[in-house]
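Write out the 3D structure for:
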Amino acid sequence: MRLTLRAPAKLNLFLEVLGRRPDGYHEIRTVMHPISLYDRLTFRALPSGRVKLEGDTAELGELNLVARAARVLSKRVGRRLGAHVVIRKGIPTGGGLGGGSSDAAATLQALARLHRLDLPPGGLEAAAADVGSDVAFFVSARTALCSGRGERITPLQPAGKLDFVLVDPGVPLSTARVYQALKLALTHHPKDASQFVRTWSRGDLRRIGGSLFNRLERPAFKLAPSLKKLKKRLTHLRVLGTLMSGSGSCVYALVHGAAEARETAARMRRTPSPEGWRVRTVRTADCDLDARQAWTPE
């Protein structure tokens, strides 16, 4: 039996870091949404229990997450779950878009289907939390407020279809390095995620654009000053809002509809620019994944 799944990327629309936890992770509150840019993973069950990985990614961390997902689920069900996994990348690596976590979530879903597992309610989500911080979000792949280290998921109602122009500057950033560069003062007063959630629920695009926030932008911009320049360039195009996603390095602009996305992409195309896409928010991993390549670097 062969199974092909599309693993979507995500954008962080709000991300606040509350502080460092005793386990070494950081406590965060973030609002994430899957978008129409994805990796494609093809799975075939292997009765040997072996997990064989191949594909067009050389990113060891992402491959490790897929293999870890198989190990975690195997341990939970008490038997080895084998699969041959072929990964075709569409999500930039090191861009803050969650490609590795999404691939791991797809692996959990595929193995459960291929091996006909009878899991209890919440079983996949529990396994996902053991695999990695963002993996549980991608199991359901819908708008959510995520807390803890990202594994506690509170679903939110979608604010309709949102259109973005997404830019990959081609400068991958290490999540660990960005967090190491983050300096939270003793007088740090975190931004309230509930305020963003209220704005989100009203569905007013201009207010949403004005409320986009990411605490990790400052340390990321110190590590890679070109990202700050890229964000300024997007902001000058008079879009609804701009933000770096996750720990970077991809930067996006929220725009008012598909026509404005095309116009913004055309303006970016006329300048020396990194790679970019027109993308939309999607509700699940299996619907409307039709990201359009807006431009490629000269």
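Residues 47 and 82 are 6 Å apart (CA to CA).
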